Amino acid sequence: MKQEQLLQQAERICGQRGSRFTPTRRQVFRLLAAHGNAISAYDLLAQLQQTEAHAKPPTVYRALDFLLEQGFAHKVESLNAFIICCHFDHAHPMQLLICDRCGDVVELNDMAIDHAFTKQALQYGFTITNKTLEAHGQCAHCTSTLGEQHEG
């Protein structure tokens, strides 16, 4: 989905929820959507400061907290970074595939993985309150280019 469509959808959802989509929150959303991959809060801050010179770390963290609460973004815990969620119009399970070589992050929404994980937790009497499943490895592109480098 294109950045403008995502932004319009987020604005509509905020209106329905009665949530304030302030200019700063909107700008951080735009920056996340434009980046298209995992980005740290400090990298977002540096980009935000290009248009809002007075922005400080709490400015970005408050905006990110809002985006996370609304389901518009996800935190990539192992990278201490954030990604835009392209299907925030509905609740969904989330699993992340993270390429250790290029940093690409792929969001999966597999109900079977989610159900299996929850079922296993329940078997141990464990109640999940926050669920982030992340797997590190190499994406197909990096795997193929690594193979080409070894062949050459």
UniProtKB/TrEMBL annotation:
GO terms for biological process, alphabetical: negative regulation of DNA-templated transcription; regulation of secondary metabolite biosynthetic process
GO CC terms of this entry: cytosol
Top-level lineage group: Bacteria
Reported cofactor(s): Zn(2+)
Cofactor note: Binds 1 zinc ion per subunit.
Residues the entry annotates as binding Zn(2+): 99, 102, 139, 142
Subcellular location: Cytoplasm
A Pfam cross-reference name: FUR
GO function term, MF aspect, one: transcription cis-regulatory region binding
Keywords of this entry: Cytoplasm, DNA-binding, Iron, Metal-binding, Repressor, Transcription, Transcription regulation, Zinc
NCBIfam families reported for this sequence: PRK11639.1
Subunit structure: Homodimer.
Name of the featured protein: Ferric uptake regulation protein
